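Dear Dr. L.,

I hope this message finds you well. Following up on our conversation about the binding site, I have prepared a predicted three-dimensional model of the protein together with nicotinamide-adenine-dinucleotide. For your records, I am including the exact sequence and ligand specification that went into the calculation, followed by the structure tokens. Please feel free to forward this to your student if that is useful.
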Amino acid sequence: MTNLKGKTAIITGSTSGIGLGIAQGLAGAGVNIVINGFGDEAEIENIGKELESKDIKAIYHGADMTKPDEIEDLIKTANSEFGSVDILVNNAGIQFVSPVEDFPSEKWDAIIAINMSSAFHTIRHALPLMKKQGWGRIINIASSHGLVASPYKSAYVTAKHGIMGLTKTIALECAEDNVTVNAICPGYVKTPLVEGQIADTAKVRGITEDEVINDVLLKAQWTKKFVETDQLAELTLFLCSDAAQNMTGGHIPIDGGWTAA
Ligand code: NAD
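The resulting structure of the complex is given below.
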């Protein structure tokens, strides 16, 4: 197994859900963690303590992913605190479900900024550090919606398709620098983001929440099971390993067969 001990990872949106699961997985492998995202101060403090119980150092930076200057400060702070940025996981994301004709333009702008443009900003500041040290891993948490569409998710599907293009482009730009760039495309994972969507989709489609789970979400997922956050953490660890050194510019679906159909 590749030794990641002492490396530093920034995981955007790691106060909850998938990002938190990935932070826990990387911390378990000895990686120092920069936690980012919103949430209750005491809860974030507890996340930091729990991560540090795995014999690593964790710091929190509250950069808002809609604000390029705060994103720049996130990368700079990580580098000055730990002396390197080795692993960057672009994970922060939000969702909003509505027919396009009623889609509020401020929701469109926020989704494009948080789910897509933030990765441009993190990468442009982190990549020079990775190139200089001759090692790096950039992992973009895209979605099945980076590969296929669903109705009423125009902004989300657009942002996730965009992140796939960014992944491929940056992979080519740093292919000879020992820095890999890949996207993970999860199907449905039962996190707060999806729990909110269950209620919203029920309203938009005029059906019950159980019907949303069985007839909308897991309908596409042939295994009839939600993806688990620790499965995404294990996949992230694999992409950080030496075995994945020659995997770059790619995407890995982890979606119960959704995008195979
Ligand atoms: P979540 O709501 O549990 O977590 C989202 C995280 O992003 C939180 O830490 C939140 O504080 C943070 N965040 C939101 N807005 C932010 C901002 N402006 N600045 C900084 N941080 C911000 O959601 P999740 O389900 O864990 O989603 C994480 C990522 O995984 C998203 O990019 C999402 O699109 C993607 N994804 C989720 C699923 C799923 O089924 N849950 C499936 C595929 C992809």
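In brief: Strands lie at 8-11, 32-36, 58-61, 87-90, 136-141, 179-186, 251-254.

With kind regards,
A. P.
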